[in-house]
Write a structure and sequence with these properties.
Elements lengths: L2 H28 L4 H11 L7 E11 L10 H15 L5 E10 L5 E14 L3 H19 L5 E11 L2
Antiparallel strand pairs: 1-3, 1-4, 2-3
Length: about 160
């Protein structure tokens, strides 16, 4: 992997960490509830608990700048979402729009509009979902002349209830 891509990955990883840090802090503050209160709440709410299933969370970061040509438009990304991503994950997904940045090989900070795709899929489907995710990444790079699509996998299952 060239230095440019490595730097881009590191900056995007830092971005993800900065987004998740407030969540970790909030969870830490929530943990300060005394164990007696927790036990009492667990007893009272034990009958009300909702059944959950273990799911895996993967995030994909799509840059929209192209070296040669116009940026990936909203219409182009929507087409990609409808024709490539949704057929692979028809049960649901989330797309957020934001601004990403990274330091290029010359040391310049580059900002670009980006799309964040959040996927949740059953833990037992990890292997097949991973193949689908890699296909999505390769297709995006090929269709839109991108060097990379950042992938972040959380190895810990999250509990999901519908």
């Amino acid at each position: 992997m060239n230095k440019f891509l490595t730097q881009k990955f590191l900056v995007l990883a830092l971005l993800v960490t900065s987004v998740l840090t407030p969540t970790a802090y909030a969870q830490q503050q929530t943990a300060s509830v005394t164990s007696a209160q927790t036990i009492a709440q667990d007893s009272a709410e034990g009958q009300k608990r909702v059944a959950t299933d273990p799911f895996i969370r993967t995030e994909l970061f799509f840059g929209t700048d192209r070296q040669d040509g116009p940026d990936v438009s909203e219409e182009e990304f929507q087409w990609f979402l409808n024709e490539v991503i949704t057929p692979e994950f028809p049960d649901g997904l989330t797309v957020l729009t934001g601004i990403g940045q990274f330091r290029n090989s010359t040391g310049e900070i580059i900002q670009e509009k980006s799309k964040l795709l959040i996927l949740l899929y059953p833990q037992e489907a990890t292997k097949s979902s991973s193949r689908k995710i890699e296909k999505i990444r390769e297709d995006y790079k090929r269709y839109f002349q991108q060097q990379s699509v950042l992938r972040v996998d959380d190895p810990r299952p999250v509990r999901v209830s519908f």
